[in-house]
Design brief:
heterodimer, A: 458 residues, mainly alpha, MetI-like fold, two-stranded antiparallel sheet, B: 4-stranded antiparallel sheet
């Protein structure tokens, strides 16, 4: 029924479009000078019908379910819900709903079958009411819009107001989602910090997120110091950047400045395919190829290497970041005006000198922006490290050791049966909060750098 | 042509600096320069004039092999500078460009300080052994560019912060800093206002003492004011190449006459 209502809305608003356009065309044919061209009169009817009625339908659908549930429960015969607590009421309602869908288990009581019948009936009535309201409202608005058509009616302004309102709405979605995420993280983190002091979390050197399962269990009290976990993230990020930054920069410079155009036409798309490889596949690559290779190489040199190393995870992550950095650098280099390149070449600079001394400084803001975004990605990257880094948090900066990262810990803390009222699970939110703060700081920093140097060549 | 300044026409005094014979340039399938032969004299300002798209800038870019940097451009024919064939495999285009400086239509200072803009060429060519020598080169070049007095107190501010006319004189100073023997100027005043243009024109007249200057210009008045020899290009052909005074007062070719009297352009 909802689909039919939407279809009706669409048909009526298209009808409004045609009516209004026709009316305006007729006005113009009579020799009147219109303020807006007929197409805008049509669009005005279309938009002013479809937008408010669609909003109405969405609200209706949001309220319909809970209201019908409430009517169903309050319509039950007196006494049938005596001695039933809140959870029991929920069970009764679920049973009524499944009877209404035709899935009947055993022999339900007669009053439940009655309730299910009423439930079905109310849904049908609500559907018809929705269809009726949508049709009446949209026809009414179309009629009103039709009556507006006149020589000096400013339909174009109306259309622009509605579209700019729509754009405003779309842009606020992102803002409100961000605020919602921050709020969720913040509330859960505060609950965590009620149980674990914030100083212990920020400065503690141990990360052992266990909690006793029973009151009397003699287990170690969990330790929630995030430093070893963050150190792991840091080590892996640094390893990744050590690989990705030079390789990405040099490949971009080569492709942009030196490569023959035919090689560039092949190499650039291939490089960008790297960006499309799912990170879980990079994870396979890390555990099946890179980690054993590093281990056996370490064995030949006589260096002890753990099976999961920060080096393996970090270098594979670095490979993932190469296209990121190289495409940013490539864009930044291409954006440098050709006149600067000519100027340097005409002074007798070689191509390499031109790139190094003139193009590179001019492209620095774009390149730094790319690198900082790559850092944000490396810090937030999860799948590769879940597969290829370790689980034990150890306070080390040796890339040949097994380390764990913030994202890995969040995943392991939240996997499986969890209850959201103990420090172990709440710790995940605190970690997420810290991750959010760190990446936010990096992004703000990146934006500032880019802004500061943006107009260096103008 | 009333404002034509009578500069002394001592063109005959110069020796041949650049000798071009049968130069052809193709951009892809377009035949941009058709069999151009010209002798450019030392210590002389030579102007290239002609309607837009006639190939004068393209020919200018042949002289320091800047057309090499364009993938689709092909250059045929002989160009000799001081008797050396510039297309000879033994000639390094990088060294050629140090010897044949170029100033572009739009001022293109590097996003560096004024000092570093000038010092860039001397640094990459190793012209200065010490910091003091480099300082001297920078000061001398800026003086030659007639901009020293305006920037001497802010040498370490970015060159991009100067006004358009100052930027163009900075670029001329930058080109001069590598001690070139020939200076190519591709419409150096087209982005400048009349006052800045007058300053740059005075500068060009100064530069003639030390260099062979080749200037591409859209303005016939400018060609008449600054040059001793003028070449008229039309549709990729060199139509006429003579003393500036003669070409403007007594053109031989009917196409030249039409252009300077404003019938084609």
């Amino acid at each position: 029924m909802t689909a039919i209502a939407f279809l009706a809305l669409l048909c009526v608003s298209i009808l409004g479009y045609l009516l209004n356009r026709q009316a305006a065309t007729r006005l113009r044919a009579n020799g009147t000078r219109l303020h807006s061209v007929p197409g805008y009169h049509g669009l005005y009817a279309l938009l002013s019908t479809i937008v408010p009625v669609a909003v109405l339908v969405v609200f209706w659908l949001m309220l319909q379910g809970p209201l019908i549930d409430r009517f169903t429960m309050s319509g039950l015969p007196a006494g049938s819900l005596d001695e039933v607590d809140a959870g029991g009421r929920q069970l009764v309602l679920t049973e009524i709903k499944s009877i209404a869908r035709g899935r009947i288990f055993g022999n339900p009581e007669a009053w439940k079958v009655d309730a299910a019948d009423r439930y079905v009936w109310m849904h049908a009535v609500a559907g018809w009411m929705l269809l009726g309201i949508v049709t009446v409202a949209s026809l009414g608005i179309v009629g009103f819009a039709r009556s507006c058509v006149a020589a000096d009616f400013r339909a174009r302004h109306g259309v622009e107001r509605i579209t700019s309102g729509l754009m405003l709405f779309c842009s606020t979605i992102a803002i409100f989602t961000t605020l919602g995420i921050i709020a969720a993280l913040l509330f859960e983190s505060i609950r965590f910090f009620e149980r674990v002091p914030i100083t212990e979390f920020l400065f503690g050197l141990n990360w052992e997120p266990q909690i006793p399962l029973r009151e009397d269990q003699i287990a170690a009290e969990g330790a929630f110091g995030w430093i070893p976990v963050f150190l792991g993230t840091l080590v892996i990020t640094v390893v990744a950047l050590f690989l990705a930054v030079p390789v990405g920069l040099l490949s971009a410079i080569y492709l942009n400045e030196f490569a023959p155009s035919r090689l560039r036409a092949v190499a650039k798309p291939v490089l960008e395919i790297l960006a499309g490889v799912p990170t879980v596949v990079y994870g396979f690559f890390a555990i099946l190829v890179v980690a054993p290779a590093i281990r056996s190489f370490g064995a030949t040199l006589g260096i002890p290497v753990s099976p999961n190393t920060a080096l393996a995870a970090g270098s594979v992550m670095g490979i993932m970041l190469i296209p990121f950095i190289s495409s940013f650098t490539d864009d930044a280099l291409s954006a440098v005006p050709k006149s600067l390149r000519d100027g340097a070449l005409a002074l007798g600079a070689t191509r390499a000198e031109t790139v190094l001394n003139v193009l590179f400084p001019a492209a620095i803001p774009g390149i730094v922006g790319g690198i900082l975004l790559a850092i944000s990605r490396a810090i937030g990257e999860t799948m590769i490290v879940v597969m290829a880094a370790g689980l034990i948090a150890s306070l080390t900066i040796n890339p040949l050791d097994s380390v764990t990262t913030v994202t890995v810990q969040i995943v392991t803390l939240l996997i499986g049966d969890t209850s959201f009222d103990n420090p172990k699970t709440l710790a995940a939110f605190a970690l997420g909060m810290m991750l959010f703060i760190v990446t936010l700081a990096i992004n703000v920093f990146a934006l500032r750098i880019v802004r500061k140097y943006r107009e260096a060549y103008e | 042509m009333n404002d034509m300044k009578e500069v002394e026409r001592d063109a005959a005094a110069g020796d041949i600096k650049i000798q071009a014979r049968g130069v052809q340039v193709f951009y892809g399938d377009t035949h941009a320069i058709k069999d151009v032969s010209v002798d450019i004299l030392d210590k002389t300002v030579t102007a290239f004039i002609g309607p837009s798209g006639c190939g004068k800038s393209t020919f200018l870019r042949c002289l320091n092999r800047m057309n090499d940097t364009i993938d689709i451009a092909r250059v045929r024919g002989d160009i000799h500078i001081d008797g050396d064939d510039i297309h000879d495999p033994s000639i390094d285009p990088v060294q050629l460009r140090a010897k044949v400086g170029m100033v572009f239509q739009k001022p293109n200072p590097f996003p560096k300080s004024i000092y570093d803009n000038i010092a860039y060429g001397p640094r990459i060519h190793g012209l200065a052994a010490t910091k003091t020598e480099l300082d001297e080169i920078v000061e001398r070049s800026l003086r030659r560019g007639a901009i020293w007095d305006e920037v001497k107190d802010r040498l370490h501010e970015p060159g991009t912060g100067l006004s358009g006319g100052q930027q163009q004189r900075l670029c001329i100073a930058r080109a001069v800093a590598t001690e070139p023997e020939v200076l190519l100027m591709d419409e150096p005043c087209s982005a400048l206002d009349p006052i800045a243009t007058a300053q740059v024109e005075d500068l060009i007249d100064e530069l003639r003492r030390n260099y062979s200057v080749v200037i591409v210009t859209h303005s016939m008045q400018q060609a008449a004011r600054v040059s001793q020899k003028t070449a008229f290009f039309h549709l990729g052909n060199l139509v006429e190449y003579r003393e500036t005074g003669q070409i403007f007062t007594n053109p031989e070719d009917p196409r030249t006459e039409s252009y300077i009297t404003g019938r084609i352009g």
